[in-house]
Amino acid sequence: MSEWLHMGGYALYVWGAIGAALLLPVCESVALRLRRRAALEQLKHQQDHDET
């Protein structure tokens, strides 16, 4: 098991790539959710402003 985790000396590269592949989509979905929320708030404020 230890040999498998060390990946023949390339563990840092392999595990770093796996970590990035898992982390980046999570970060992108969080950023997308925040941008969507901000856009909806801006639209709501604009509609409130237009009604007055």
SS-based structural class? mainly alpha
First-to-last CA distance: 68 Å
- Give the tally of β-strands: 0
Biggest sheet record: none
Query: Radius of gyration from the CA trace?
Result: 22 Å
Order of helices and strands: HH
* Helix content class: over 70%
Bulk shape: rod-shaped
DSSP helical segment count: 2
What value does the average pLDDT take? 93
**Low-confidence runs:** none
β-strand percent reads under 5%
Note down, in words, how this protein is organized:
- There is one protein chain.
- By secondary structure, this protein is mainly α.
- The chain has a domain of 32 residues.
- The chain is 88% helix and 0% strand.
- It contains 2 helices and no strands.
- The N and C termini lie far apart (68 Å).
- It is a single-pass membrane protein.
- It comes from Duganella radicis.
- It is found in: Cell inner membrane.
- This is Heme exporter protein D.
- Required for the export of heme to the periplasm for the biogenesis of c-type cytochromes.
